[in-house]
Amino acid sequence: MEFHDFVLSQLARTPSRLLDVGCGDGRLALALAAAGHDVTAIDPVAPDGPIFERTTLEEFAPSHLFEVVIASRSLHHVPNLDHALDRIGQLAPRLIVEEFAWDRLDERTAAWYVSNLDGPSKSVPQCLREWNEEHTGLHGYETLRAGLDRHFREHFFAWRPYLHRYSEVNASQENEQAMIDTEGINALAFRYIGAPRREASP
Asked: What domains lie within the chain, and their CATH numbers?
């Protein structure tokens, strides 16, 4: 199930008032708006459009609260994770997350990744070295999970495939999921739903 379909399946009513944090190119926000929801989407590089605001979570000044905050592969970029999660908990009684657990790329997962790459071959040690260099400074899974646990009560959690998203990977989502299910490789993404550990305030 694609993430926008997953989000839609979790909403109690239409329209719901939604905040998309770190919306990127806006595709998720536009899909949710097209489904009839009242969406505000924020990002310092948000696209043009009535539902978008070019701002950070720290500087965002809404005129109302939301029913759900959505964060799709954005929290691992946030410099101050605790501050961001505390802020999110003030804005809505529910958080829906899809995240990237980049630090779970171990040797066997890297070996599968390398074996499915189009183009020039590379060794597993080279892959791991380049991967770690590329993602240095981003929050890994343990940091993300600890932050979520400090600020939210978990309602749902599931591991998800991720590597098939890369255009140079010659493998399907189904193939990657099958490898995860048999514990042949690690999942590098997860979905999470939680409620703030304290009530949101205006």
From this structure: 3-104+138-180+187-195 (3.40.50.150)
